[in-house]
Amino acid sequence: MYKRKIVPNLNCGLDLVGEVLYGKWKMRLLWFIDQGHKRPSELQRKIPDASRRVLNLQLKELQDHELVSKVIYPVVPPKVEYSLTAFGKSLIPIIAAIGEWGDNNADRLKELIIKGLSEDGE
Predict the structure, then answer these.
(1) Within a domain: 61
(2) What is the pLDDT of residue 9?
(3) What is the pLDDT confidence band of residue 118, given thresholds at 50, 70 and 90?
(4) Residue 83: which pLDDT band, with cuts at 50, 70 and 90?
(5) How would you classify residue 36: left for phi > 0, otherwise alpha for psi between -120 and 50, otherwise beta?
(6) Quick check: is 33 in a domain?
(7) Which CATH number belongs to the domain containing residue 82 in this structure?
(8) Helix (H, G, I), strand (E, B) or coil at 82
(9) Which pLDDT tens digit goes with each residue over 11-34?
(10) Half-sphere exposure of residue 114, counting CA atoms within 13 Å on the CB side?
(11) CA dist 102 → 16, 49, 51 (Å)
(12) How high is the pLDDT of residue 4?
C-alpha cells in the first residue's frame, strides 16, 4: 500500500476538502454515482479517459473518506455497486454549483486553458 511521504496540511476547511476531493475524477465519480451509475463498468463508460485502475483507486479513496459505500453481491461473476453515503450526498449541491459556474464561464475558461497550453509549448 502507498505510504505518503509528506504529511498533509489540515489547518483549514479548504485543505480538508482538497485532501478528500483531490483527484482528477473524484467529483465526476460522485456526480455520476448520484445520477444512478453505480457499477464500475457504467462509471468507466461515463469517464472513458480514465483508466480502470485510476477509477478503482479513486473509488477506494472515496470509500476511505466515507463518501461512497461499496456492496459486493455474492454472485458469479461478482457484482459490485457503489452508492453515496449521506456524507457523500451532502457534497452534491456543491459539485452542482461548481459545474454550473464552469458552464456559465465555459467560453472564457476554454480560452484561458487553450492560451495556457500554447504558452507552455513555447
Answers:
(1) yes
(2) 77
(3) confident
(4) very high
(5) left
(6) yes
(7) 1.10.10.10
(8) strand
(9) 898 988 988 998 999 999 999 999
(10) 6
(11) 22, 19, 24
(12) 66
Residue 72: DSSP 8-state:
E
Domain hosting residue 44, numbered range: 13-90
The crossing angle, in degrees rounded to 10, of helices 92-104 and 26-34 is: 110
Rounded distance, CA 25 to CA 9, Å? 22
Q: How far is CA 77 from the centre of its chain?
A: 26
Amino acid present at 90? S
The closest of 4, 116, 110 to 61, measured between CA atoms, is 4
Task: Identify residue 66 by its one-letter amino acid code.
Answer: E
Q: Any idea how long the chain is?
A: 122
Q: What angle do CA 15, 69, 31 make, to 5 degrees?
A: 65
Looking at the 3D structure of the chain, how many domains does it have?
A: 1
